[in-house]
Amino acid sequence: MAEKSKVILVGLEREMENSYLDYAMSVIVGRALPDARDGLKPVQRRIIYSMYESGILHNRPYRKSAHVVGNVLGRYHPHGDAAVYEALVRMAQDFSFRYPLIDGHGNFGSIDGDEPAAMRYTEVRLSPIASELIADIEKDVVDFVPNYDNSLREPVVLPTKIPQLLMNGSSGIAVGMATNIPPHNLGELIDALLYLIEKPTAEIEELLNFIKGPDFPTGGIIIGTKGIRESYLTGKGKLTVRGKLVIEETKKGDKNIIIKEIPYMVNKSNLLTQIAELVQEKKITGIKDLRDESDRHGIRVVIELKKDADPKIVINQLYKHTQLQTTFGVIMLAILDGQPKIFNLKELLTIFLEHRKDVVIRRTKYDLEKAKARAHILEGLLIALDHLDEVISIIRQAENSEKAKEKLMLRFKLTQNQAQAILDMRLHQLTRLEKERLMEEMKQIKENISILERILKDEKELWRVISEELKEIKKKYADERKTSIEEEEKSDITIEDILPDNPEVICITQDGYIKRLPLSTYQLQRRGGKGLNTLANNNDDVITSFVVTSTRSTLFLFSNKGKVYSIKTYELDETSRQSKGIAIKEYLNIENEERITEIISLSELPKNLYFFFITSKGIVKKTPVEEFENVRKSGIYAIKIGEGDFLVNVFLTSGNNEIIIFTRKGNAIRFHEKDTRPMGRVAQGVIGIKLRKDDSVIGGVILQESKQIVLVTKYGIGKRVNPQEFSTQKRGGIGIRAIKITSKTGDLIGVKNVSENDEILISTKKGQIIRIPVNNIPILSRNSQGVKLVKLNEDDSVVSMDLVENET
Question: Where is the Topo IIA-type catalytic domain positioned along the sequence (predicted)?
Fold first, then answer.
C-alpha cells in the first residue's frame, strides 16, 4: 500500500509573503546590488573571475565573447545568456564605465544607442586595471563558496586593489530599493584614501578637499556643490548635470553652438531627435540647422543659429527643454554582510580600506607560511651540502628511498619534508655555486619572513603597505578629471533665461483688456499714413494706453485711482493683431471702476531715482523708487487721489530734473523738480499747474536739452518743439502755450521726449496703430498748430501715443 501523503495547511497570505520576501532578498543580494567591498554585482564578479580562470588576461590574446558567456553560464551564473552578455558589454563601454574593466574588440555599441554586435562576433579580454581586482586571489585572501551545482568554488568577493564601487559607480533596481552610485576619478579617490589612512577620524568635509565630485566618463558639467555635499554626507542627493556647449564663430561671422560633451547615460541620437522636434514645435527658437560631426575622437554636434538669434538664449532653451541638462539622483546603496544599506562617502571609503586590510593580512599570512616552509626546506638542503659525502654514502648504502629517508632523518635530525627534498636534489645542485645560491636564498627568505612578521605585528606597517600599493595604482591608472564642476548658480532655468528679450508693445483698452504684440507687427510708415488695425473687427473698444517694452522687462501699471500693479511682460499672453485681448482682471486684482492710465517698463528697479506723479487736476508728487520694490499683482497705493481727480502720468526722475507739464488745451509749465519735495506712497502731493476752466492735465516730460518734444493731438495733428522755447517758472503757475489748439486739431493727447532716430507709435480710437519715424515730424514753434501725422477715418481719433527709442 502506497504511503499516505502528508498535507500541511498553510495560509495563502503567509505563504505569498514568505515566498515574495525570499524572492526579494534573492534579487537584492544575488542580482541587482553591488557588494560594498569590491563594488561588483554577482554577474560582474563571475565574469571577471571566470575570465581570470580561463587565462583571458590583458596580456593574452582576445577570446570570443560567446566563449566567456558560455563559461560564466556553465560554471557560476545559471541565468540567461543575454543578461551576462549585456553586463560584459557594459563593462567594455568607455561611455558607461569611467575605467572599463573589459578590453573589447569589435562593435560594443555606441553612445547613440546602437546595439552591440552578437557575442559570436565580438572578442574580449580583461583590461589592465581589471587585473587589480583579482590580484593575489590565489593566496587565499578571500572566502570561496560552492557554485550553484556544488561542482566548483567561486569567490564571495574579489580582493580588489582599486575602490571599484566609487570608481566606476553602479546602478541597479532591486525589489523595493535601488542604487545609483556615480563614477569618480581614481586619482581623487586614492588621495582621499591615503588621507583617511593617515587620519582615520577625518570628517567628510575634509575628504571633499580631495574628492571634488563625481567624474563621469562622458564629461559634462556638474552645476553647484550643494548636491555633491548632500550626497556624500547622507548617501542620497541630486546632481544637476549639463552637457558642455561652446559658441564658435564662423568665417562669415555667424555664431554656432557646438555640443562637445553630453550628460552621463544620455543617448546622443535621441537627444538630437528631441532637439529637432522642439525646434519644429517652436519651443526652441533661433536654430537654423543641426548636424552631427561626431567621430572616434569625440562628440561634436553643430547647431547653426539664425542671424538674429542670441546664442545664450538658445543655450538656455536647450538646457531647459532637452536632456542637455539632467538630474542624476545619487543613492549610495550597497550590500555589506548580506544586508543592503545606504552609505555615506566616508563609510564606503572605510569599508574599502577595511577590506584591503583583511586581504593584506590574509595575503601576508599566506606568504609567511610559504616563506617558512621554504626556509625549512633550505635548512635541510644546506645541512646536506655541509655533510655531502656522508649524505651520499647513506643514500648509496640504503636499500630504497624510504630507508634512505629514515636514515637521513635519524642521522641529521631532519623532518620528512627536509629528507625528501634532499633525496629530490639533482647532481648539479651539489656544486659549490649551488650552495652559495641556496645560502643567498636563505638569507633573503629570512629577511622576508622578518618583514612579513613585522607587517602582522605592527598595524602602522600594515597600513604603510596598503598606502604604497594605492600609490602604485594611482601612478599606473590615474588620469585627469573629465567632468568639470561649476560654482553654484540658479540651476533651475527660469522662463526669463530661455526667452529672447524682444521688443514688444502692450496695449490696454477702455473696456479693460490687455494685449501683447511684437513691435515688428507695426511697420514704419511716413506721416499721414493710416496705420495698422490692432482691435477685433466690429468692436467698439478703444485703446487708452500702451507702452513699448521688452519680453523680460517688468511692467508697473498705474491706475486712475493711484494704485500700482506689477507684472512681467512675458507673463502676458501674446495675442493676435486683431484679437480682443485678454481681460486685465485675469492678471491683476483691479477693481471694477479702476482703469490703467500709465505703464512704465523697467528691465530692473533703479536706485536713487523717483517716480514722478501727475494728476488730471495738476497735482504733482515724487516718491523714491525703493518704496516700490515689493509691488504685487494685487497692487499697492502709489499716490492719494483727491475727489474728482485721477492719475494721468508717471515717469522716472533723478531728483534734479526740470519738468514740463502739458494740459489738454495746449498749455505747458516748466519748473524745477526741487520745488517738489519727496513724499511717501500715501501722500497726495502739491499743485504743479493752475488750470483754466474746462482744462485738465494730460501728462508731462523731463526736460532734456538734447531732445525735442513731440506733441500729438486728438485729430492726428503733431509737431516737434525745442524744449528751450519753454522758460522756467515756479511750480503752481498757469504756464504758457505749447501748441495752438483748434477744432481742426482737437485737444492735446500725448507728449514725449524724442531723438532724431526714434520712432513714435500712435494709437487711435478705432484700433489703428501707426509707427512713424521722428525725423518725418517737423520742428515748429510753440505757437504753431503742427502737421497731419495720421490719416484718420470718419469718427476716429487719437487716444494715446508712445515712444520707440533707437540707438544713435
Answer: 33-498
